[in-house]
Amino acid sequence: MESVKRVVLDVLKPHQPDALEFSKAIAEVGSDYHVTLTVVEVDKNTETLQVEIVGSAIDFEAVQAAIATLGGALHSIDEVEVQSENDTG
Fold first, then answer.
1. Which tens digits make up the pLDDT trace of 54-72?
2. What does the pLDDT read at residue 89?
3. Three-state DSSP string of 21-84
4. What Pfam families does the record tag this protein with (predicted)?
5. Is this structure's pTM higher than 0.70?
6. From 46's CA, which of 21, 68, 71, 81 has a CA 20 to 30 Å away?
């Protein structure tokens, strides 16, 4: 069994909720999620974000659902780190 330990996402969202509320809502998806959000670009109606999520077993589908609920759109998965059950490193 593999566990997703880290993902970096390219996300487009409206100005509201703000970056702080958006980060908190994603962090609430998992009990040990650490979320780092960087605003890459701002235009009249939207913000382009780089969202890094680190956790022991990230539920990617739940993260996607949270992003959609917050009015965001996932553009791409830019980085991913997966660990197998047998990987001790």
1. 999 999 999 999 999 999 9
2. 61
3. HHHHHHHCCCCCCEEEEEEEEECCCEEEEEEEEECCCCCHHHHHHHHHHCCCEEEEEEEEEEEE
4. DUF211
5. yes
6. 81
Domains with residue ranges and CATH for the chain: 2-84 (3.30.70.1340)
Name the token pair of 1: 């069994």
Distance CA 40, CA 54 (A): 19
C-alpha to C-alpha distances, 84 to 7, 50, 77, 87, nearest whole angstrom: 15, 26, 19, 5
- Kindly give, in sequence order, each residue whose CB lies less than 8 Å from that of residue 65, ignoring residues fewer than 6 positions away: none
Give dist(CA 19, CA 6) in Å, integer. Answer: 20
**Structure token digits, residue 76:** 């791409």
Q: Are 54 and 33 in contact (CB under 8 A)?
A: yes
